[in-house]
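Example record

The entry below shows one chain as it appears in the dataset: sequence first, then structure tokens.
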Amino acid sequence: MIRRALLAAAAAALTVAPAAAAQTADETALAERYAPVVRLVEQEEECGPGEPYEPIDVDLLFDEPTVALRGPWNAFDLLEIGPAAEDLRGRYEHHLDFPGDALDPRCDYERWSRRLTEDGEPAVYANVATEEGYPGRLALQYWLFYVFNDWNNLHEGDWEMIQLVFEAGDAAEALAEEPVLVGYSQHEGAESAEWGDEKLELVDGRPVVYPAAGSHANFYGDALHIGSSAEEGVGCDDTRGPHVELHPRVVMVPGDPEEAAEEIPWLAFEGRWGELQQAFYNGPTGPNMKGQWTEPISWAEDWRSRSYAVPTGGALGTGATDFFCTAVGTGSMALVRLLRNPPVTLLLLALLAAVVIWAAARATWTPSAPLRVARRRSWGQTLAASGRMYVAHAPLFLGIGLLLLPLGAAIMLFQALALGGLGFVGVDTSGEAAGALALLVVVIGATLTLLGVTLVQAATARALVELDAGRSIGPVRAYRLAFDDVHTLLPALGFAVGVVVLLGATGVLLPVAAWLAVRWSLLAPVVELERPSPLVALRRSGELVRGRWLRVGTLALAAAAALALGSVLGALLILVTAAPLPLLNVVAGIVYVLTIPFVALVTAYVYFDARTRAELAPRTPDELPAEIELRTG
């Protein structure tokens, strides 16, 4: 009897072994067939913009003397230097620690990663999984590990993944079918696409994935993506090229859990793959700790159908989305500084708030009579007079601000043609050429916007003089008067912008650029009301600002704060509504149109105040300026 049972067990084992081997072969073949093509944002210089981290074979971390295993529950308790994969088995209160400070990464992780991977090749970990309760559905997962997440939530280690769903019971059936659904992980959520969707790019039948620079969130295309929740990530993910294309080696995770734990011991690690930090600066847990590892089909039911790309243009610009991206990035860096040095950061914020409150309390706001423009006014009176004049003649100044609508439409059309429609004339808009073209588009768009603002300033100054003289004027006539001197205004503006941009681009000379920008901030009213030559206009603006740089600069900042209201409002709406991004940019653009005339009025009143003070100041005969006539209509 015993002999018969042993023979039956042996026969069963001989039958199961080939079946298991066949299943493993089918799973491996399936994983190789759909191995993803990874397009990373190219990094053109060391420690510069772009993506320096590739998805790596995690075995490179083990027996590595620069990696430590720490814990339990404490970042300072050292357990092992250069831990082996076996040392991670079954540990849940420990964490790996890489060489560097996650909250002050500088270029440390990039250089370490480059040294670590110089003899290796990119890798992805493939896992074929089913889920009880979902018969006839099979998931093929690819897990990618990056050594550092250099985004808004800085942290060591970063696991991301993509998943393909088949209507099949096992890998053998899946080999005879195409996937029905694809999901790309993005922060705490994922975005789905049906197989054959236009947004899903394939190369030889393999899905193409675009990891965002820094965050490694996976996207279907080349764009700047925006998120306002934990599912999407709060901030902007950039997948725009040029790109480096990778074809990672596939490492197969055995389907049998016991075999997988034996062959890949780190799959039983329940700790963190990176330095222990506060909150979302912690290293992440591994694939085996994610819900989709054991419930892949249930997880797929929660995928989003789309992600939101920042519009490249619009009739009223992209102020809301641009401000949102910048504000989130700046805010995250401020939070990092707060965590690194709370007392100093809080002290600086308190001092800044105290300075603002003190300045507002010390300012003289009344009287604020807007007429008799050629008079001295205090800081507060200048702002108050500008506000009263705007309200009293709202149709006039709103009409002047409407110039920005057709100009914005022209910028939108130019961007659309430059970034997507130049192929028909033989202009290359891909690869490295795309980067150069995008930079050119930004420069030209910014220049046209600045030109529009300057024209609004010029027309506003002419309108203000006419009103002060008791004459009626409309927006059209204000622009006609302003355009009489556009031949002087344009070269003066071009020279000023060119100098400020070139100096600012050096970084070192940025303070000089800021100083000159304030000195030349009265250029538009000087040209319109004094009619000098371009170079004399620049010199005259500097003369009026001399000795009053801080006063003029702070008024310019106050006006800029009013100008930023549209972008701030749009950014807040991004966080609290689900409205389309182009609509939110329109909202921000409308506020922009409303506030630009106020900024122009502030500039004009600052000009008259500076001119009055300069002309009333005692001078020697050699210092007396040439006679300049105040122009009216």
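Notes for this example: The two ends are 119 Å apart (CA to CA). The CA atoms of residues 315 and 409 lie 4 Å apart.
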